[in-house]
Structure to design on (224 residues):
């Protein structure tokens, strides 16, 4: 019977030393390669943070949202409920999810069943609803983007993603010109959903399919 091989004394130490030498060699070569690198220069961050004075922020937002194939309505505070009623009737909505923070006045007198989310509705239950109505945290004119952050009138993220229709109320005071302005208003610790039109994607043949990752229909009501 052959006896097991015995590792020569000191061999593990030599391997460790060899590995250490290789590391130092690699780091030395990197150091030498960077020796003649150009000095670091500050990155300019003097880009525009706002749109030019006099820009019709609300008008630009409406235009850009429409470019995304969303249905856009413009109304006043006095006409908001009637506009919501017309939008829901056009989409044949009978059962509508509404976060707890949605004002009762938005749906006052509208013949639609308001479905609450407390306790939270199951995913199948959300999917069976005709739609959801929410407010928003901020809207961006330059990109036509609406941002939700889970506020009382917006609810949890699933609430605005599973129903086929999303009716979003945007106050003119919530519309800013650019993304930097929007970021300044948002709390980075809150869950954010950035919406640019109805959910859509395209396959390799550029065939557009809507409703894959969220609502297939988006109605945006801008209140001025």
């Amino acid at each position: 019977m052959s006896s097991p091989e015995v590792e020569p004394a000191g061999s593990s130490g030599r391997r460790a030393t060899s590995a250490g030498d290789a590391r130092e060699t690699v780091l030395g070569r990197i150091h030498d390669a960077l020796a003649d690198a150009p000095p670091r220069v500050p990155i300019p961050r003097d880009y525009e943070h706002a749109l030019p004075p006099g820009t019709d922020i609300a008008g630009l937002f409406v235009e850009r949202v429409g470019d995304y194939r969303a249905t856009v309505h413009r109304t006043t505070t006095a006409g908001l409920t009637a506009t919501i009623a017309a939008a829901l009737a056009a989409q044949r909505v009978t059962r509508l999810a509404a976060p707890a923070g949605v004002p009762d006045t938005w749906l006052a007198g509208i013949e639609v069943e308001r479905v609450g989310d407390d306790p939270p509705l199951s995913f199948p239950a959300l999917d069976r609803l005709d739609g959801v109505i929410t407010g928003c945290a901020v809207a961006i004119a330059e990109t036509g983007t609406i941002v939700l952050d889970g506020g009382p009138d917006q609810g949890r993220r699933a609430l605005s993603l599973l129903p086929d229709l999303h009716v979003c109320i945007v106050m003119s005071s919530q519309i800013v010109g650019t993304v930097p302005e929007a970021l300044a208003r948002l709390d980075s610790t809150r869950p954010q959903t950035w919406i640019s039109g109805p959910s859509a994607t395209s396959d390799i043949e550029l065939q557009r399919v809507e409703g894959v990752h969220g609502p297939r229909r988006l109605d945006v009501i801008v209140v001025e």
